Recover the amino acids of this structure.
């Protein structure tokens, strides 16, 4: 038995089980026969085991340096440290597909455990099996992780050095895939709901899945931003690169869906919107993969291109067509339970969802526009970051505005006490913005400060309302913490406001300075005094490192580096970041005297509040986790009868 | 009632559409070769452009104390002088394909960002290369 044999066999088995499962699930639906459904359910763990075996086979091949596999030869080297080897399965396209397939079977396994009525269960399984068929089909044909090389090399080149430079890159892809794949479950439920014409309960049944997927997407995005900041050496965390956009769009649409789903859950409204948003959110994950893997757009993430573009485009069209096609067929029947007034919580939620969806539209247009221009006008253009920034600023501000008032508005229609709260909040917003202007911040940054304080006030008001409500009812105020959904959403909302503030300030104020220093020379910059004490070279086996020794008066010795990898012609900068609550000090070694080490060119980038971006990202994930935590969860009263 | 919502949605979509297409027009960054620039110089003055070509051998001057990199970008037919503030990137060398992001200020291209285009199949250009060949080489390089 070789890894290749085990791998190919396992992929084929996973594909066969998925195909058979799809057939049985469809039979169960069309024949209305429970025996087929039982059969389809039985195959779920088998497909999972097949995928798991294939994944382990790839790890086995990597750990035993089996360079007869093309994937191992291209992405592995005997010099790689163990942790790099273990995460190499998702360093390139074929392995990433395998990880995606494995996670898909895992989600299918978890989803199939939930008791469902046989009609919808068969369709949910059919959709999930269909997705599995696509992934394992692609792996079995055009992008096999277990392709054999006729003449294996002695040693490989190892994964892209950019991926080895920071441990975050080991985590980021897995988090993203867990998020992407997680959206497949609500999508499958939505398709089943539309097919069997039961439009209400699927949202409640998939709330957990949507939140889980959203939490992973958020964690994945923040991890990716952090990686970009700490590894790419340009001192930024977001470049509106197509790859970033590709994963931002599903996040935006999933966020829109989370908010309108809340209305359907509690008030039975916005059913058609929910079908549309969940379809688009899932389709966007596939579209994103098409964008990043097909090489249609030029991008810094050029290490992951392959022949799978057309396959993903076809799958995207199929997934979108299925969801929206079903919706157009049933849209006449989809009735909302309650009449809708704009000035109410549901009104704010819908408007917020429009902002998120509009933002997604902006990002998609900006990302695809160069393709259109190239196709129709023949000119090679790119859409600059200013376009995205100009449109994102008002959309983001609108979202922050709605986020504060929305949860304070009552359902159905706003009443007197709600209006009082509104005036209070608006006062905070105006005062906060004025405070910013008085301190000499730009109008944009001042507004961001106002919006942050306004959201902070809104969160405090909501918490106060919750606690007072319990006290009035003679209950312990601490019991408010058991309302996990409410508390979790407050934490996430606060974190979003904090992130908005951090983004506004770090984008507005940024100081960048570069200088060539000779040994012993001191440089006064940004309130810092640093002295260059020389360079030092280190041989680290898989790479060669050069570090500049910089003595600073505030942070002791700082050593930014350049890493020389044998598989790369150019050195990779390894910046040294010193986080402080106010500013980030980002030290980069740009160039050095290769003969005597007498001089070095050093760059310092000073960015405010970046530290709080990572805090906010952590809080968003923690808040989501708190909402999802099962222990001590109060029994929710199912107020809405199934439609 | 329905009409009012429809109107509201149309207004929002209209505003969004206006912002998107207005913004796109202003923020399009053209990718040019030196010959394309020389054909229509006025059009590309003072606006962001991505200029692609090869570093002309013998033209590179780098002052590490001022952190000023000067070189001439060529596509075999036309040439443009480039001034880039900052250190040359690792793979920067004569004859290499590069893309410079920046603006034309007068006759000199002021680079803000310098990207080296390197491909496995890269060959130094032979005599008789056309700007189109250079452009392809740069677009296909990673």
């Amino acid at each position: 038995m070789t890894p290749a044999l085990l791998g190919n066999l396992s992929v084929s088995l996973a594909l066969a089980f998925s195909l058979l499962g799809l057939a049985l699930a469809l039979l169960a639906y069309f024949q209305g026969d429970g025996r087929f459904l039982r059969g389809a359910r039985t195959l779920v763990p088998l497909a999972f085991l097949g995928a798991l075996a294939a994944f382990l086979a790839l790890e086995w091949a990597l750990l035993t340096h089996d360079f007869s596999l093309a994937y191992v030869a291209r992405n592995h080297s005997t010099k790689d440290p163990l942790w790099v080897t273990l995460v190499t399965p998702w360093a390139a396209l074929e392995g990433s597909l395998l990880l995606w397939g494995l996670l898909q079977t895992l989600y299918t396994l978890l989803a199939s455990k939930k008791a469902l009525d046989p009609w919808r269960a068969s369709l949910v399984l059919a959709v999930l099996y269909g997705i599995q068929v696509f992934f394992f089909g692609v792996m079995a044909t055009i992008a096999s992780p277990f392709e054999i090389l006729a003449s294996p090399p002695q040693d490989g080149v190892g994964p892209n050095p950019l991926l080895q430079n920071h441990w975050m890159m080991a985590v980021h892809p897995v988090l993203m895939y867990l998020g992407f794949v997680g959206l497949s479950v609500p999508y499958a439920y939505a398709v089943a709901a539309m097919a069997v014409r039961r439009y209400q309960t699927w949202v409640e049944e998939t709330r957990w899945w949507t939140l889980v997927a959203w939490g992973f997407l958020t964690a994945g995005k923040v991890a990716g931003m952090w990686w970009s900041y700490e590894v790419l050496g340009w001192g930024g965390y977001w470049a509106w690169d197509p790859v970033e956009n590709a994963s931002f769009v599903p996040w935006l649409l999933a966020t829109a869906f989370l908010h309108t789903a809340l209305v359907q859950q509690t008030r039975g409204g916005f059913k058609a919107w929910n079908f549309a948003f969940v379809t688009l959110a899932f389709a966007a994950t596939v579209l994103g993969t098409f964008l990043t893997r097909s090489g249609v757009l030029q991008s810094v993430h050029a290490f992951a291109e392959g022949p799978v573009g057309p396959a993903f485009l076809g799958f995207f069209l199929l997934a979108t067509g299925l969801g929206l096609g079903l919706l157009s067929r049933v849209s006449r029947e989809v009735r909302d339970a309650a009449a809708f007034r704009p000035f109410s919580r549901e009104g704010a939620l819908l408007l917020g969802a429009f902002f998120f969806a509009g933002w997604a539209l902006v990002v998609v247009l900006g990302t695809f526009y160069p393709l259109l221009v190239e196709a129709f006008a023949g000119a090679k253009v790119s859409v600059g970051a200013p376009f995205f920034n100009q449109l994102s600023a008002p959309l983001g501000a609108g979202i922050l505005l709605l986020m504060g008032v929305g949860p304070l508005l009552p359902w159905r229609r706003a009443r007197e006490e709600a209006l009082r709260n509104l005036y209070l909040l608006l006062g905070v917003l105006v005062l906060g913005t004025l405070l910013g202007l008085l301190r000499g911040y730009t109008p944009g940054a001042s507004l961001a400060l106002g919006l942050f304080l306004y959201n902070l006030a809104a969160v405090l008001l909501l918490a106060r309302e919750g606690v007072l409500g319990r006290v009035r009812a003679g209950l312990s105020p601490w019991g408010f913490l058991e309302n996990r959904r409410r508390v979790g959403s407050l934490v996430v909302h606060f974190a979003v406001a904090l992130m908005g503030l951090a983004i506004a300030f770090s984008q507005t104020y940024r100081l960048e300075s570069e200088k060539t220093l000779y040994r012993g020379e001191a440089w006064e910059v940004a309130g810092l005094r640093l002295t260059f004490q020389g360079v030092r070279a280190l041989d680290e086996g898989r790479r060669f490192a050069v570090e500049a020794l910089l003595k600073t008066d505030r942070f002791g010795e700082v050593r930014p580096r350049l890493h020389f990898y044998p598989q790369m012609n150019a050195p990779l900068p390894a910046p040294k970041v010193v986080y402080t609550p106010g500013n980030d000090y980002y030290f980069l070694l740009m160039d050095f005297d290769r003969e005597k080490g007498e001089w070095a060119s050093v760059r310092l980038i000073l960015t405010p509040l970046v530290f709080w971006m990572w805090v906010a990202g952590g809080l968003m994930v923690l808040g989501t986790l708190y909402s999802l935590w099962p222990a001590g969860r109060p029994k929710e009263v199912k107020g809405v009868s199934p439609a | 009632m329905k009409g009012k919502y429809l109107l509201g949605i149309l207004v929002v979509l209209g505003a969004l559409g206006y912002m998107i297409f207005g913004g796109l027009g202003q923020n399009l960054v053209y990718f040019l070769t030196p010959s394309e620039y020389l054909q229509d110089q006025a059009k590309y003055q003072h606006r962001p452009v991505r200029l692609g070509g090869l570093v002309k051998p013998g033209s590179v001057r780098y002052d590490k104390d001022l952190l000023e990199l000067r070189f001439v970008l060529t596509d075999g037919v036309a040439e443009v002088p480039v001034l880039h503030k900052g250190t040359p990137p690792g793979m920067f060398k004569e004859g290499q394909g590069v893309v410079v992001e920046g603006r034309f200020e007068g006759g000199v291209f002021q680079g803000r960002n310098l990207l080296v285009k390197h491909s496995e199949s890269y060959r130094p250009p032979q005599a008789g290369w056309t700007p189109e060949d250079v452009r392809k080489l740069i677009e296909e390089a990673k």
Observations:
- Chain A has a mean pLDDT of 89.
- The longest helix of chain A spans residues 345-377.
